[in-house]
Design goal:
alpha+beta, 8 strands
């Protein structure tokens, strides 16, 4: 784990320090993810699947930053943000044999509706791969999102929640986004996760929709 080196120095308070994550931190990232999101499809696939997912986000062809919150030498939270190129599709392509093996030895996973949805998406991704590059969205909304700084994942260890760690991570992500010239940020949250929605709204995020029905997208306009 390396100390944050963007202008302004490392973000910290009396108890916490924010640092850049490195590959050796990924097992801890996976552990926190599984505790923070016990019902997610990724968690159901197991810790190694979670580790591989974040490995792709850390090392893949993205323009992103991976932040870790450290207390007493232990990782207690993380945030992955930036511009991601194939966050899910690239992960599926790179790990398709491993994911197929996980399903093979745990066939009950197929009965989980969340995993079924991800399997359908993964199947489409592999079909696109066989035909050539994965097609890119060309809509105005997709173009606007490409110019926006996305929060792919943010999580805090349950034992450390309520201490302002999530707010600290988000503020550092916003600072980096501004430093890199972004004027907006975006993320997606489960529509029934009222606690997370409330947290984001307190940080100035607003629900965003282009169809009239909100499906979990949120946006925040950045200003100096």
């Amino acid at each position: 784990m390396t100390t944050v080196q963007d202008s302004g120095g490392p973000a910290h308070n009396d108890l916490l320090t924010l640092s850049r994550l490195v590959q050796d931190d990924l097992p801890c990232v996976a552990h926190i993810h599984m505790l923070a999101f016990p019902r997610s499809a990724l968690t159901r696939l197991g810790k190694e699947a979670v580790r591989r997912y974040y490995e792709w986000q850390l090392l893949g062809p993205h323009d992103s930053v991976a932040l870790g919150a450290v207390a007493d030498g232990e990782l207690v939270g993380f945030c992955f943000g930036g511009v991601f190129r194939g966050a899910l599709s690239g992960f599926v392509r790179k790990n398709r044999l491993f994911l197929a093996w996980r399903i093979l030895i745990h066939p009950w996973l197929v009965t989980n509706p969340l995993i079924r949805d991800r399997l359908k998406l993964g199947t489409r991704v592999l079909r696109w791969t066989a035909r050539g590059p994965v097609p890119r969205a060309t809509s105005r909304a997709a173009s606007e999102q490409h110019r926006s700084f996305g929060i792919l994942a943010i999580a805090v260890h349950p034992a450390s929640q309520g201490l302002g760690i999530g707010k600290m991570l988000m503020q550092e992500a916003e600072r980096i986004a501004l430093q890199r010239g972004f004027t907006s940020m975006h993320l997606t949250v489960a529509t029934d996760n009222l606690q997370a929605i409330g947290f984001y709204e307190r940080q100035g995020w607003r629900k965003h929709t282009t169809t009239g029905e909100w499906t979990g997208q949120m946006r925040k306009t950045l200003s100096l």
